Protein: Na/Pi cotransporter family protein
Organism: Candidatus Gallimonas intestinavium
Amino acid sequence: MPVIEVLETIMLLLGGLGAFLAGMEIMSESMSRLAHGELRRMLNKTAGNRFAGVGIGAAVTMIIQSSSATTVMVVGLVNAGILTLFQATAIIMGANIGTTITAWIASLGSLDVSVFLLLFAVVGVFMKMLSKRENIKLIGDTLTGIGLVFVGLSVMSSAMDPDLHPEMMGVIKEALEVVKNPFLLLLIGVVATGIIQSSSAVTSIVVVLATSGVLIGGTGDGVYYVVIGSNIGTCVTALLSSIGAQPNARRAAIIHLLFNCFGAVIFTIFLLCWGWFGTSFQDTVLNVIFPENYQFQIAFFHTLFNVTCTILFLPFAKGFVWLANNLLRSKKGEASPEEELIAHPDERLLRNPSVGLAYLYQETGKVFAFSMDTLDKAFNAFLAKDTSVSQSINERNGEIAQMSRQEVAYLVKLSANSLVMEEEKTISSLHYVLNDIVRIGELADNVTKYTGHYVNDGLHFSSEFLEMLKEMYAKIQKLYGLSREAFEKKDFLKLREVDALEDEIDNERRRLVQAHIQRLNEGKCQPQNSSVFINLVGNLERAADHITYIAHSIEQNQ
């Protein structure tokens, strides 16, 4: 066999695979950006409905064209405490169904229509070059990705064409068809997928080989063991991504592995038992549905495997959660993501900016709550004349500053992605929000200093003044509740209530200061009280301003 023919075949095969994977990546990226907010909203709708979870997992995977990416995203969301293990289980099952679309796309490469699909790449490039509208450019990218997928399939098919490379294909066919052992074929699927990190790519290669007349494992059901193995191999990505994550995130990756392994065991036994009756599942069933069309038979089997496994295992979703919890038991004193103030910004979510941004938005709300709780503690300490909390408030401020720096660093990483305008505006607004949160913490620190003067200088404030101060702070707490609701739900109607209450607080500050000046003039108040009094009231009013700014940050996202 000429060396040049071997090199040409290898180069064509690798080049075709590269074009295929590049097309999948471009298509995934552009479709994700087109559906930017929808991915987040879909994942938020899972609640406790396992059927909704399956549908959402399938839909998200069809959009981003990668079950591995969906599972890694789910691991990240579980790590952040956004999804429960039960919700994650249903989404993972759905992701396995969603990934089957790639095999169907690959099987189209054998049809005459694939020639026209190649033109999508050219059409997509021109759409991106000539249009100024963001959505049209993204549609152009999607078409370019589809075109590249079929370019890759076409090139791989050329590499495997027995008419162009008869000797090479003869050797490949003999080598691949001689492997008959089902467990060895399973292992081939596992290893190949583990290396390429894409079950879609492995299944597509199997389809391309079938198009060229090469069936791994020869005639019969041999090729389907490879497909089953690829479903186990795809778990490697999620397992690797869960290293160093919260226990629940690692459990989500384990559930993915258990689901695919149990499915593989059932279908392997099923195919082996079918073969004992003297015929293969392919000849008896698949060849009847798609006569002599191996590409569609493989795509159909891939879909059948994942849909059947989901139907079988979905009723036992809680059982998978129980099993994962027992395989990876919680250590004593271990905090869940929900119990923690804030998880470290999860790098797994950077792949999909809209989901990563939604996660960070939620975490920012937690830091906002922590900052407000710090102000509450400082104010209550003032009323109680308690100077012992000063160190605690100072430490809390350090935590707030540290969390703010982590989130800013995460925002910078998110900004490096290709973003739509809405995401860019949200990132910009979050920078300002984090600054406001830090300022609230700093104002709480100021309040503890005034408490020190209050106690150490032997100052006295009347019960009337303290009651007025409590009334003002009660309004600040109510303002916080309205602002956080407006911020988290992006409720623009709440802004009117926020502004009205903030005006009341401003008026309250002026009323308090004027009343204090009047008491000074009447000799009812000591002059040395003025510094603490006016600064305390002023700092509380400024805290209300920052709380209001956070509510109004949602306007920057329009």
